[in-house]
Structure formats: C-alpha cells, structure tokens
Amino acid sequence: MLARKLLALHIRDDERITRIVKVLTRELLSHDYYIGRREAKTLELQVEDATADEADLMWKIYEDVAQELKLSEPWNWENEALAAQPRTAIQGLLQSRDLKHVFSSTYQIKRMAVPSGPGGGGKKQESLQITVLKQAWERV
Fold it and tell me: Of 11, 24, 76, 122, which sits with the fewest C-beta atoms within 10 Å of its C-beta?
C-alpha cells in the first residue's frame, strides 16, 4: 500500500505502478536489494543519467562523506573495548549548502566475565558490555 501511494505521487499509470510494486514487494525478497540505474530503467522507474560534471561532483561528495564517516577504517570491537574513555562515532550526515546535521552515538565498551550458563561448570566466559551514553542528531 505504501509503495503504491509513493509511486502514485510520480506515476499516473496504475498498471505500471502494479508491475513495479509486484517486483519490489514480491520478487526481490529483500529490503537491502540494490537497484542500480540499469535495473531501475527496466522496472520503468524514472531514471536520469548524470552528466560527467554531475558524476564528478557526486563522487567528490561521496569521498568527503566517506572520510568523515571513516568508511575505510575497519570497526574493531576489541580495540574499542581497550579505550578508557567513552568513544563517539558519527553514523549519519545530512548536509545542504547552509546546514549540516550529524547523527552520532557516544558509547562505552567494557570487557567483562559472565557465567557460561547451565552445565558450564561455573566457568566464566568473556563478553563485551556496550553502554550507549548518548545518541542524537545535532546541528554542527
């Protein structure tokens, strides 16, 4: 129903909407299925290819965001648990010409020993305790 309503904002052909909704909701079987430009065109979605200048600008924006979000740095819980002080990670960015908002989480990770459960013979198992101290969108 939601897919139909959203598509109806841009498409006036009910049969076309029905075909698109069927593919998106019954055939792809995953919410994280990536639909590239070529496939979007085969689904009859309205797609416009970027000019060379637009593509170059989009790539520069991606590189800037990737650097700020540290996308090339692997996340390692073990290293995070060694930190004595709480850590903050930026998880999202919304930016326009005049405004910038970031979504960040501040957390503390501690290594701790927990009972291994019934039949464990009183042995303890190491675990990581993650305490979220703050999560919020903030204007920067």
Answer: 122
The mean pLDDT of the chain is 90
| Max CA pair span of the chain | 67
For 98-126, the DSSP string reads: S-EEEEEEEEEEEEEEEE--TTSTT-EEE
Residues in the chain: 140
Pure H helices in the chain: 2-8, 14-22, 37-42, 52-69, 77-82
| pLDDT (mean) for 88-98 | 91
Measured CA to CA in angstroms, residue 41 lies from 20, 36, 45, 95 at distances of 11, 9, 5, 28
**Model confidence at 127: pLDDT above 80:** yes
Q: Which residue has the higher pLDDT, 57 or 76?
A: 57
Sheet holding 87-95, edge to edge: 87-95, 100-115, 124-139
Domain ranges of the chain: 2-49, 75-139
The residues that bridge with 131 in the sheet, in sequence order, are 108
